[in-house]
Amino acid sequence: MMRGRNSLLDRIVVDPKICHGQPCIKGTRILVHTILELLEAGLTPEQIISEYYPQLTAEDVAACLHYAALLIRNGEFVPF
Q1: Residue 67 near residue 9, CB atoms below 8 Å
Q2: Is 23 helix (H, G, I), strand (E, B) or coil?
Q3: Is 59:2 a contact under the CB 8 Å cutoff?
Q4: Half-sphere exposure of 56 toward its Cβ, with a 13 Å CA cutoff?
Q5: Fold of 5-73
Q6: Which helix (H) or strand (E) holds 47?
Q7: pTM, entire model
């Protein structure tokens, strides 16, 4: 069962001592951007888990999407 949206952020860690400060899934060295790129390539969360990262859960993948959405929502953008 999926927990609240805010608790999804508990699954993401940004620590300069882990993966050079790149956001990753807590307890792993799996980068958030790697999961997002796999989703962009058309893989489903189930495929990502079964074919690439069996240690992840569907909540971990959802946390990556939630984290990215928050960054975009709260960011400032300058037109190209």
Answers
A1: yes
A2: coil
A3: yes
A4: 29
A5: Arc Repressor Mutant, subunit A (1.10.10)
A6: helix 45-47
A7: 0.84
CA distances from 8 to 21, 38, 51, 59 (A): 19, 19, 23, 7
DSSP code per residue over 8-20: HGGGEE--TTSGG
pLDDT single digits (tens) 4-55? 666 888 999 999 999 999 999 999 999 999 999 999 999 999 999 999 999 9
| Cα separations in angstroms, 12 against 29, 33, 42, 63, 75 | 11, 12, 22, 7, 18
Q: First CA to last CA across the chain, in angstroms?
A: 41
